[in-house]
Amino acid sequence: MPQLSLNDALLVVTDLDGTLLDPHTHEWEAAQSWLTQLIKHQIPVVLSSSKTSAEIITMQQEMGLTGLPFIAENGAVIQLDESWSDAPHFPRMRCGTDHEAILIVIEKLRQQHGYKLFSFDDVDDKNIADWTGLSPKMAALARLLEASQTLIWRDTDERLAAFEKQLNETGLVLQEGGRFWHVLDAQCSKGEAINWLKSQYQQREGKRRVTLGLGDGPNDASLLDNVDYAVVVKGLSRHGVILKHDDPQRVYRTQAAGPEGWREGLDHFIGRE
User: Fold this and answer.
1) How many CB atoms lie within 10 A of CB 203?
2) Is the pLDDT of residue 144 over 70?
3) Where are the alpha helices (DSSP H) in the chain?
4) Residue 16 and residue 216: Cα distance in Å, rounded?
5) Over 80: is that where the pLDDT of 238 sits?
6) CA–CA distance from 43 to each of 39, 151, 158, 209, 216 (Å)?
7) Domain ranges of the chain
8) What average pLDDT does the segment 202-206 reach?
9) pLDDT for 18-62, tens place per residue?
């Protein structure tokens, strides 16, 4: 039996690639009926992704979610709700080290150790479109990183472990997404970002919203550990999603992937009208 209702004070937080979006086609038609229901019941849908702010704003426009808060670059950037203009960080908060400083650290390590890796700054829009399957327009937006860097790793697992350790020594972390690796400040994560947004909602509304999170990759673990109910959408990552709080009452793992899995997760937890 579903535990939640569309009439509850809910907050839905969802990853994009591989979760709400098909990992190959970037379509989300299978999720449309649920999105429509959530919008109708004024339940905020917070997009939480490794994507850039520019990409997510475009996605919000297409999905009818314009003006809602979102989490970009795995938690390194938080966009505030458009009605929170009194907030000191309005319209957007950046966490920790900026993109340029991260780039300098990666470049230094690459030169010192000869790591085989490619960053989004090494290539042009066409390469990114080829790697991701994005349109040329969206590929250009994917390069507008503010507080992280996206990498393709072409070296051994042993060398990856060494690279990760060296990043950690400079206060940075390496996160595995569905397809790419992401470097960001160690103090930033999707979990930290959603906890900040939850507290903002509670402060402004005077009530606590029940949170439902959905994700498919290891970089979603911190998000899924910091929500009331979690949907692990079947994903492409070879390491899977390992949660600290993997209670079957709280966590549902889908049979289907992408937007079909997203829909399956909402069907599991929320009663349809």
Assistant:
1) 8
2) yes
3) 32-40, 53-63, 99-113, 125-132, 136-142, 157-169, 190-205, 221-224, 258-269
4) 9
5) no
6) 6, 34, 45, 10, 22
7) 4-94+188-271, 99-185
8) 96
9) 999 998 888 999 999 999 999 999 999 999 999 999 999 999 999
Give the H/E segment covering residue 14. Answer: strand 10-14
Looking up tokens 């999720």, which residue turns up? 31
Q: Which residues lie across from 153 on neighbouring strands?
A: 117
Residue 176: pLDDT above 90?
no
**Class of domain 99-185 (CATH, top level):** alpha beta
Architecture (CATH level 2) of domain 4-94+188-271: 3-Layer(aba) Sandwich (3.40)
Return the active site residues: 15
Distance between CA 122 and CA 32 in Å, rounded? Answer: 36
Give me the residue label for tokens 């990853």. 15
User: How far apart (Å, rounded) are the C-alpha atoms in residues 72 and 237?
Assistant: 20
CA-CA distance, 74 to 222, in Å (whole number)? 10
Q: What is the length of the chain?
A: 273
114-124 per-position pLDDT tens digit: 999 999 999 99
Residues near 100 by Cβ (< 8 Å), separated by ≥ 6? none
Name the DSSP class of 80. P
- State which amino acid sits at residue 221: A
Q: Above 90 in pLDDT, residue 273?
A: no
